[in-house]
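DATA SHEET
Item: assembly model
Revision: 1
Owner: S.N.
Input lines:
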Amino acid sequence: MPIDTDTRDFIKVESVEMSFATKKGSFHALREIDLSVAKGEFVTLIGHSGCGKSTLLNLIAGLIKPSSGVLLCDKREIAEPGPERGVVFQNHSLLPWLTCFDNVLLAVESVFGGRETKKKLMQRTDEALQMVGMGHAMDKRPHEISGGMKQRVGIARALAMEPKVLLLDEPFGALDALTRAKLQDELLKIVARTKSTVVMVTHDVDEAVLLSDRIVMMTNGPAATIGEILPVTLPRPRDRVALAEDAAYVHCRKAVLDFLYRRQAHVEPALA
Amino acid sequence: MVSAVFHSPLDARGTPVHTAHAPHSVRPELVEGPAQARQGLPSFDKLRTIGNASSGRTGLGPARHARVRAPRTPIDTRAIWLAVLPPAIGFALLVGVWALLTKSGGAFPTPAETFAAAVKLFADPFYDKGPNDQGIGWNILFSLERVGVGFGLAALVGIPLGFVIGRFTFIARMVNPLISLLRPVSPLAWLPIGLLVFKAANPAAIWTIFICSIWPMVINTAVGVQRVPQDYLNVARVLKLSEWKVITKILLPAVLPYMLTGVRLSVGTAWLVIVAAEMLTGGVGIGFWVWDEWNNLNVKHILIAIFVIGIVGLLLEQLLVGIARRFSYAD
């Protein structure tokens, strides 16, 4: 086996099907999902709401199990959630009774607690919060800070675990456009520095093109699947202002828009 | 709850001068006001520039900064009046109607007579002339002791039971019909069972308190556990928290507000039940005292007892509301 496949198939999703049991019977959410994510790659999942992109992310996170098919991360089957796959949740999910520092420390302790001294754990927590620019608000509780700040702490919590993969579920969806742009830029810098592998769910076309190496476009549900994968070959570091008139950027953006609003504009008749 | 801890609305409007309010912030320009947060300027760098710009413009050095005080909120006398006046009017109306109705005389005492009796009664609340004649202070304390023991036992059993019911669906389905069946039963119906089992009045009264005050704690704790947001449990799974950490860092804090509501309702019930139970079991206690005064046909004392029972119940409630507020958190 060539060494290359190890890094190319860092995350591997093989013929995954997902059905949920509902009161009205079984709901076929995802069908025939095959996807590989290379080490250090930034992949976004995009599609209309209800297309199962968050479901796919939860599958990779191990929060839910597929009805059939296999998911691998670093050649090991994903059977349950684990700290090697750090998740940033859509609504930040910080524990409201803990300070920002303690929220991150909780994650650090559970990953490194057995091996390192308390001092080292506090230092890791401190570094993670500094990295996302939240060093000034460590002792605040989540309700005392803004939505963008909460999401930064959520990212810090995921990063502090030194995950092999960072999974982001519409992390900036609830933020205003300016804050979102700022956090996107910071995420790009952090990912460039930490060389993280990232899978991110989004419904924002610009966000997908700006951040990704590849954009996975999903068809409408039920029984959604991967419709098309668009490689984004724009050089990094990327600058949003310069890219606004870049031909390749505009082309990518158009391709995604075309997929979302021409070919997947209407909900397809149920295939299940 | 908004971040009232840090800011009054006044200082959010101004430039960031927060030294008096931010206990741990090293640099005053780092503190963000809620108004700015709402306008979508959470960007930390942006705030820093605002802070720097303002201090540059006004020429405030760090030394000056320390002396600047945030403007104090003026005392709102109107709000105080609105808080005090309506209850006072309500109380005056009650006493007024009472005085009008008793003006013509009869068995029912007037407010003035009752007040005079109360003054006499509370002049010596802790006298002791044998088991059937003790001061009102003793009666209240004995009742509170029974409530404390019965309620304490109920909390000891009810809260863990609520956790188990909330955590395991099977047990919830097993126990829920029983709870629905037993919960509406009147406290007095439990008393004979207590007398039968314990063969003494005092434990029977405590038993009645126990069985009547356990349900709100069981039910509220169980509901609290069931309503722990799935997000938090997902966080626990992703972080691979140990079972102990899940309980101490996620379940307990998340359930605590529900639990305290249950405790508050339970104490209310316990205090309701004690009067009825003591009327039947006798001994020293406010309920027995009411019955004793009825036998003496001392209606003034009965009226005083009603006020006393109400006030003690109110104080218990306020105490627990205070505790609940202390332990509740904002999302």
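QC remark: Chain A touches chain B through 40 residues (CB under 8 Å).
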